Inverse folding.
């Protein structure tokens, strides 16, 4: 663990920044918790013990990120439960609307859904102080736990090429629901939205960010053998 | 980690013992994996974020035990997937028949179901070599992650005394289903049954063991404010 200097550009006593920071960590923590629990539940759909274990490992890595983040928050005097509360409804809505109907949908959701969420959180990490950024980056650590998904989905597409269309649509739906919930959050959470728009970024930069998110989403879909 | 001397009374080259050992570790590992995934899925039923987090913590403590156990197995040259395979059906049957219909049932299942399972595994640990026993004991480490359940259930019983009867019945059903699956496993897995019956234990001792399991089950039910 390297020693991180305290924030300089954005002092912790700036109330607006403090509110935004609480939102950033709250959305990330709650997103990780919910993703972890949904992936664990979706492991039920796995056809083999090996795949069930791999999905459980992915869920557990996500829970570890949640756990580390909430520890960081407590250290910063931020109550995790309070910080997560505003995001309970949008995440519940997202997961309710994207309940996988089979194992392949669960795999694509884990790969694509988590991918876009993590890309978004990485973008947010560009707007926070250095100490927070380090904690966020650790939670978002690019691990290869999800990589087991790529060959499994690709093999399924070879076995049954008709699934390409169905899963491509599914990937688009996941992205659409994610963006729709992100927008609902932005409308509700002024501090969070101002961090992006009012801070160093302006509306053009926000547009650029969404373009980057879509681009990386396309790359992930292509890696799975799907079109976006 | 203390240095454990290699097994003396039960040499690792004894094929029958090796078979039994594989079964003991397989049943424990698969039990932990399934319990972890079911508890994570049941966290969906939690009425508050604090309770959801507590249940998730319990689930992932269980996954940690699974993960440590499978590492131990690999170190001993035992393939975890193969060792777990014979227990997939009985555990799936148990969890299918004991799907909680609400949050209180999920809590009682987590507390009582895990309790009796861990008691049983602790009994099994009395029949294995010392190195295995140490690994099993670590996985069964009496943690207090489940203790949050006691006040929550007790508070619910005060609020609605009619739930006492319903949850007491539920606890009995959990115990009944667990024993029924344990019996099915004993019939199928000769090596495992012989470890208990043919080894240092005889049938009387097995009877004593089940009496102890029932007794501790009663204690746990009482702690929750339920009758067994």
């Amino acid at each position: 663990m390297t020693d991180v200097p305290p924030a300089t550009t954005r002092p912790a006593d700036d109330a607006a920044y403090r509110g935004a920071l609480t939102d950033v960590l709250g959305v990330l923590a709650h997103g990780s918790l919910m993703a972890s629990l949904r992936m664990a539940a979706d492991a039920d759909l796995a056809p083999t013990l090996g795949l069930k274990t791999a999905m459980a490992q992915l869920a557990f890595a996500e829970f570890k990120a949640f756990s580390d983040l909430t520890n960081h928050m407590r250290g910063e005097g931020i109550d995790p439960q309070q910080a997560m509360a505003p995001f309970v409804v949008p995440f519940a809505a997202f997961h309710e609307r994207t309940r996988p109907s089979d194992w392949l949908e669960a795999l694509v959701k884990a790969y694509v859904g988590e991918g876009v969420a993590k890309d978004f959180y990485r973008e947010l990490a560009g707007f926070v102080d250095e100490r927070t950024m380090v904690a966020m980056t650790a939670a978002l650590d690019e691990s290869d736990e999800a990589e087991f998904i790529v060959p499994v989905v690709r093999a399924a597409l070879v076995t049954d090429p008709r699934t390409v269309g169905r899963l491509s649509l599914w990937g688009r739906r996941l992205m659409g629901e994610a963006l729709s919930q992100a927008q609902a959050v932005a409308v509700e959470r002024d501090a969070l939205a101002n961090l992006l728009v009012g801070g160093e970024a302006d509306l053009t930069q926000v547009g650029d960010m969404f373009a980057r998110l879509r681009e990386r989403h396309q790359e992930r879909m292509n890696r799975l053998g799907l079109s976006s």
Observations:
- The domain at 15-224 of chain A is CATH 1.20.1260.10 (Ferritin).
- Residues 1-8 of chain A have pLDDT under 50 and may be disordered.
